[in-house]
């Protein structure tokens, strides 16, 4: 009998060390380091294209909004739209994996008000910037 080789998984990052470095950078709170991590995620997207894991893409978009917000370069309505799109994608990503709001609330710990915020962003009036920031 021949032994089968384990299947390799192709990813956009070079290895575990690069992955860990980017994750630390995204969550560190220092906008300069966060921007560096966002630049690395952009490189991953260019390598991996539409196969980029949605969780990585959504996380980077939420962090990008925070970095843009702290830079003072965008107007209030531009920030609302940026945060809104990132939040909608993030909540929908979780929703699409199960298709059940109750599952979202219980298993992923997404608060009811965030699901309601997603609904408002998608179907209602744009909320205040403070609420988008909190989301």
TrEMBL record:
Quote the InterPro entries the UniProt record gives: Las1 (IPR007174)
Tell me which domain of life the UniProt entry assigns to the organism this sequence originates from. Answer: Eukaryota
What are the recorded GO MF terms, alphabetically?
Answer: endonuclease activity
UniProt xrefs under Pfam families? Las1
Report one GO cellular component.
Answer: preribosome, large subunit precursor
Q: Which GO terms describe its biological process?
A: maturation of 5.8S rRNA; maturation of LSU-rRNA
> Could you identify this protein by its name?
LAS1L protein
Q: Which gene encodes it?
A: Las1l_1
